Amino acid sequence: MVEREVESLDEQQMAVKKALNNNVIIATHPLYKEVILIGKGIGFGKNKGDIVPQEQAEKTFLLKDEQEQAQYKQLVSYIDPHVMEVLHEIMLLIEKRMDETLHEHIHVALTDHLSFAISRAHQNVQFSNPFLFEIESLYPKEFQVAQEVVSVIQERVGVTFPEGEVGFIALHIHSAVTNKTIHDMNRHHQLISKLVTIIEENLNIELERNDINYNRLIQHLHRAIERAYQGEQLGEQTNLAKVLKTTYPVCYNLAWKLIKVMQQQLHIRVDESEVLYLTIHLQRLTQS
Fold this sequence. Notes:
Elements: E1 2-3, E2 14-21, E3 24-29, E4 33-38, E5 51-52, E6 59-62, H1 66-78, H2 81-98, H3 106-122, H4 132-138, H5 140-157, H6 164-178, H7 182-203, H8 212-230, H9 238-247, H10 249-266, H11 274-287
Antiparallel strand pairs: 1-6, 2-3, 2-5, 3-4, 4-6
Helix pairs in contact: 1-3, 2-3, 2-5, 3-6, 4-5, 4-6, 5-6, 7-10, 8-11, 9-10, 10-11
């Protein structure tokens, strides 16, 4: 399912193929075949073959991926219509707050996630989020929007989410903006968590999650992973390497250890110059 800004869509006649509920219909389009139209009351009283004016649709999606199409139809069929209406409003809210077009998978992934989260909340089943602080640190804008989403659900659906749910929602928002998969992001957070554990064990310290130097370390590790995937190099710093190796041997050797772990986990080369900047971050941690 792909969200598109389709030129001259309103000039083409669209006819109802199936009304999924009062706010969602599948329509046929002479140029784009099937489209999903979302709008408050757009499906009310509509029958197969009825013409649908484009201005009634708040959102228009092209049905491209058959699997996502089937998943979306299934979701709409079992989610309470009121909840589904709120979730549609949330999608519009996220897009407005992020000021970016969201990749299509969020309409299936986040709708699915939130509907199950609401169900879990009703049953008082809670999941912890071990990466909550890291997610807030790495994706502050997404985290803030996720907090607003949680407030909307509490106000409109009457469900209170546990704190960790904000982090999960923020990940989905970041995924929709960057088109990164939730699986890859979780894998990177697990790697960062592993690296932090190695640092604590080797330096014999317990890092304070609200410390500014910890925040800088997390940001740097995240960017180092991104740079590794993009093949970006920081540039050779031979003189600096000699100084750091001599002045801070413990941190320098630990930085090399972290780089090797990253390479083993990511299965890609990490620029050796990352060692220098990691050494500086590690040294800061020993002084905080």
